């Protein structure tokens, strides 16, 4: 019987984005789903990124 290989944990970042508030979505909901997804795969989350602005606004921050 051979020994299983040790696999290093992947390092990943989470990116959650909601462009409008009226769609019933929140970055917190997305983050929870992605954290569960990463946890099941034994991935290490190194960064969390969130955006709450619309990409269609002409006056958005650069």
From TrEMBL:
InterPro entries: Resolv_N, Resolvase-like_N_sf, SSR_resolvase. Keywords: DNA recombination, DNA-binding. The keyword NADP does not apply. One of its GO terms (molecular function) is DNA strand exchange activity. SUPFAM superfamilies: Resolvase-like (SSF53041). The keyword DNA-binding applies. Residues 11-62 form the Resolvase/invertase-type recombinase catalytic domain. This is Resolvase/invertase-type recombinase catalytic domain-containing protein. It comes from marine sediment metagenome.
């Amino acid at each position: 019987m051979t020994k299983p290989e040790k696999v290093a944990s992947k390092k990943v970042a989470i990116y959650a984005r909601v462009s409008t508030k009226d769609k019933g979505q929140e970055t917190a909901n997305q983050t929870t789903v992605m954290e569960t997804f990463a946890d099941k795969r034994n991935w290490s989350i190194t960064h969390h990124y969130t955006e709450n602005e619309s990409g269609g606004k002409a006056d958005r921050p650069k």
